[in-house]
Amino acid sequence: ENINAVSTRLKLGANANYVDSEDNSLIDISAQKCSLPLVELLTLYNADLNRRDEKGRLALHKVFSSKSAIDQKLKMINFFKKEQIWFPFLNLSDQNILVDIFAEKIKNIK
To answer: What is the spatial distance between Cα 41 and Cα 29, in angstroms, rounded to a whole number?
Structure first.
């Protein structure tokens, strides 16, 4: 993962919402890797953080299944919480409660 290369491609017009043949978007892949800098970059280019894959999963779901370190997962969760861009069917208060519950469960895995 070379953030400079991705940044250059996006500046040249690459689609931040590209989806591969396995229905993984760039956001999905970045979330799975818990690459916060890449997720932030893609967000600047209007990547859809609320996109659901063919199984109905959001990029945030892929953070939870990631094999990344707990600290990286918590940073990703906090990013999604800050952006207030997931679970659009919940009001903001309920979203924050849900994110806090997820974050606490991940901390307890340590």
So the answer is: 13
Q: What is the mean pLDDT of residues 85-107?
A: 66
Q: What gap in Å lies between CA 99 and CA 19, rounded to an integer?
A: 26
The predicted-structure confidence for 12-56, as pLDDT tens digits, reads as follows: 999 999 999 999 999 999 998 999 999 999 999 999 988 889 988
Contact (CB, 8 A) for 70 and 108: no
Per DSSP, 19 falls in state: B
Phi, psi of 23 (to 5 degrees): 65, 30
Rounded to whole angstroms, the Cα distance separating 21 from 8 reads: 23
Structural contact between residues 80 and 49, judged by C-beta atoms closer than 8 angstroms: yes
pLDDT of residue 61: 80
pTM of the predicted model as reported, rounded to 2 decimal places:
0.74
- Give the Å distances, CA to CA, from 48 to 7, 37, 85, 93: 17, 16, 9, 22
